[in-house]
């Protein structure tokens, strides 16, 4: 499969020796320094994990892949600690923090999006952090995920504080609903923003000011004739005339181009399904629970 029009840019543990074996597979980073004998340090344990994929969408491996995990802590609105290169066990990461206050952010798959090497000394405020913009073209990967938790929160069972990692991308699936045969050779989305906010914005879906927009085309080496999940992942963005175009032939006939403007904004953590029918096309959101949210519907008609 050829992807045209983009380049994809692919979070302390202080304690006794007895804890080392228990936390071997958990997230870890540099300690703040030596601990005096008998000294007890108040701490919190946070476990970040993907919400299990459930609902009407078919799970694909890329939905929950974690290539890197980082974290950072803000206290009184200012960045105070960065946790680099954390280890992941399965689909979760457990981090022990020697703090009981502040907001902890954990981020998956952001090593190529955030300048982690210089973040610690940046003096960044939490307000600036939440407005971080990343270059995020479409991709064949589910991309990054973010989550946060207030360390002042206590777990109901006295255990680790849960932190849910929410994907920052929109997922596009293809579905065929035809009596005969169909062969889809290409799919194009026009007017796609090339940058996005790293975190959800309080005022709703927003595109960074001045974000460049361009077209993205998928050309399939072997035309698709069966349902396909995770065909494309797009950054969350306001819709400024985003159009979908497919080139498809039915029952061996000449290819037809079907186009339609998408209605509504593209929301993170949402699945949109392009359904191919003999006489028309729909874009429908999957009624997926928890992990992926529900978006809007758009009907496509043939030209």
Would you write up a description of this structure?
37% of the residues are buried. This protein has 2 domains: 2-168, Immunoglobulin-like; 171-302, Immunoglobulin-like. The longest helix is centred in the first third of the chain and has 6 residues, at 17-22. It has a 10-stranded mixed β-sheet with strand order 1-13-11-15-16-19-18-17-10-14, with no helix packed on it. The chain is built from 3 helices and 19 strands. Residues 2-40, 52-56 and 287-303 have low confidence and may be disordered. The protein has 303 residues and is mostly beta strands. Strand 15 (243-250) and strand 16 form a beta hairpin.
Comma- or semicolon-separated keywords:
mainly beta; disordered C terminus; 19 strands; 303 residues; Immunoglobulin-like; ten-stranded mixed sheet; seven-stranded mixed sheet; elongated; 42% strand
And the CATH topology of the largest domain? Immunoglobulin-like
Order of helices and strands: EHEEEEEHHEEEEEEEEEEEEE
CATH architecture term of the largest domain: Sandwich
User: What global shape is seen?
Assistant: elongated
Helix fraction bin: under 10%
Approximately what portion of the residues adopt beta-strand conformation?
35-45%
The overall pLDDT average reads 80
Across the major sheet, the strand order is 1-13-11-15-16-19-18-17-10-14
SSE blueprint:
Layout lengths: L1 E3 L12 H6 L21 E7 L18 E7 L2 E6 L8 E6 L5 E6 L7 H4 L6 H5 L2 E3 L9 E6 L10 E7 L1 E9 L4 E12 L1 E3 L15 E12 L3 E8 L7 E8 L5 E6 L8 E8 L3 E5 L12 E5 L1
Parallel strand pairs: 2-9, 10-17
Antiparallel strand pairs: 1-13, 2-5, 3-4, 3-6, 6-8, 7-12, 8-9, 10-14, 11-13, 11-15, 15-16, 16-19, 17-18, 18-19
């Amino acid at each position: 499969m050829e992807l045209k029009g983009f380049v994809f840019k692919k979070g302390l543990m202080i304690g006794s020796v007895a804890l080392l074996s228990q936390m071997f597979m958990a997230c870890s980073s540099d300690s703040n320094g030596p601990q005096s004998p008998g000294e007890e340090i108040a701490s919190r344990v946070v476990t970040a994990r993907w919400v299990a994929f459930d609902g009407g969408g078919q799970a694909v491996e890329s939905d929950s892949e974690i290539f890197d995990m980082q974290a950072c802590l803000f206290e009184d609105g200012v960045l105070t600690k960065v946790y680099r290169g954390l280890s992941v066990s399965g689909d979760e990461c457990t981090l022990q923090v020697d703090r009981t206050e502040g907001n902890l952010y954990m981020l998956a798959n952001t090593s190529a999006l955030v300048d982690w090497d210089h973040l610690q000394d940046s003096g960044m405020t939490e307000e600036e952090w939440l407005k971080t913009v990343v270059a995020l073209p479409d991709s064949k990967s589910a991309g990054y995920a973010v989550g946060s938790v207030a360390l002042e929160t206590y777990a109901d069972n006295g255990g680790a504080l849960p932190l849910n990692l929410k994907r920052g991308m929109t997922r596009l699936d293809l579905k065929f609903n035809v009596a005969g045969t169909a062969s889809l050779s290409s799919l194009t989305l026009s007017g796609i923003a090339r940058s996005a906010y790293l975190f959800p914005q309080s005022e709703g879906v927003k595109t960074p000011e001045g974000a460049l927009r361009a077209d993205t085309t998928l050309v399939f080496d072997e035309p698709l004739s069966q349902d396909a999940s995770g065909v494309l992942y797009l950054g969350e963005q306001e819709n400024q005339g985003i159009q979908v175009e497919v080139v498809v032939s039915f029952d061996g006939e000449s290819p037809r181009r079907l186009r339609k403007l998408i209605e509504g904004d593209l929301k993170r953590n949402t699945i949109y399904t392009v359904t191919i029918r003999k006489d028309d096309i729909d874009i429908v959101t999957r009624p997926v629970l928890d992990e992926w949210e529900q978006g809007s519907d758009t009907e496509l008609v043939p030209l």
